[in-house]
Amino acid sequence: MQNEIKYKLNFSDYHVIVDFIKKTYNYDFSVYSFCISKRRIELFFSQYNVDNLQMILSFLSKEKFWVSFLEQFIVKTTELFRDVEFWQKLHNKYISKLDKGTTLNIWVPDITSDEELVTLIILLYELQITDYKIIATSPFNFVIEKIENYKISTKKFDISKQNYKNFNPEGDLEKFFLMGKLNHSFKPEYFKNVRFKKFSLISEQDMIGVFDFILFRNRLLYYSSKAQDFVLNKLYNSLKIKGLYAIGVKESLRNWQNIDKLTTADKELNIYFKKK
Amino acid sequence: MANKYVVIGGSAGSFQTVLKLLEELPKNYPYPVFLVLHRLKNVRSGFIEALSIKSKLKLIEPADKDPIEAGKVYLAPANYHMYIQFDNTFSLSTEETINHSRPAIDITFSSLAFSYTNKVVGVLLSGANKDGSLGLKDISTNGGITVVQDPNEAQIQTMPQAALDIIDVDKILSAEEIINFVTKLHLRYD
Q1: Per-residue pLDDT reduced to its tens digit, A137-161
Q2: Do A263 and A160 share a structural domain?
Q3: What residues of B are in contact with residue A84 (Cβ under 8 Å)?
């Protein structure tokens, strides 16, 4: 998305838009972090030179446009092996603690583009762990359809390649991809233990399962403080005793009411285990 | 809530000015100070330590939703954008880079302008791209104070010049004058 904003929303505009979306599509935007959400709405509509609230509502009322808006609204993850120290710790220390000779059940909620999922699959491959099941969820069907054919741009791949080199100097990232000119496709066979499912952390009442490991890095950021609490409780309830839980290095559990129910494994990298 | 929110954006050529400013800021400085400096995204340690060496104020790399306190210096974390919310907390994001930068100065400047309007003092230092100019424009539009390092004095003039091209700023100062202005801000406005 471009940077220059044509029409800046005020509080009132923002709440009108949130109410309109709720009423029209039954989707609750109030769960998102205000500042980020406001800016992403502004950026999206700047592309169309929209300069008033009525035009925004008019655009949003068209269902085709709504999907395109959502596609740009959600924040994609940035690169493979982001925060190399995290992946190294996971590789060298924490995943092995979970590997008890039974199927490893992993949940990656709120996937978007999704480099975190692909990084995890590569890490498990390199650990020679084959007996695992990953469930990757998103509230949006269009995300799931895209992820099943995961492609990474050559630019993002070059950044990722550098990260991967720091993770495994001997490794070859290209072997996991079908290399193209503009994009590289993740080889479909590596997705064989992954199931994609539509699931909203906010609106679904049922649990999706109980897991040994929940990978939820840099997704909590996009929720409001109140919604963060709700989401964290849902994730906590979906984690097995002694299960592993990871959030982004700059995300925080300090406002979460149940923080004492987790043991901190690595404070700096935000890795936790569920207490007995 | 603080009476003023001081935010400083810088890139190539700004490090020494920031270091000197941190050395000069008094221990009882009454405002929060936000630093958005372009930095290597994969180097998470070392930078804050280097900036802290001579600072009398505590430097913090905030986590998402951390509260903001007066008298502390907050450094935008590597590889995250840093928003300042109207409830006096941070909101971090991993959104797309802006002008190849994450953290982007524009994002912190603009979010502060929206949340704290005329309480914001925005300072744009030396740098090699145009990040910060749109955010500084927002600070100006919302009634805040805008300060730009004199391009003739900046090590790299692209960033301050880009701001001057689109805003009628309140002050164009040398690095020494900026340090003097920021450190004595509370004597002038409180």
Answers
A1: 999 998 998 887 888 999 889 999 9
A2: yes
A3: 42
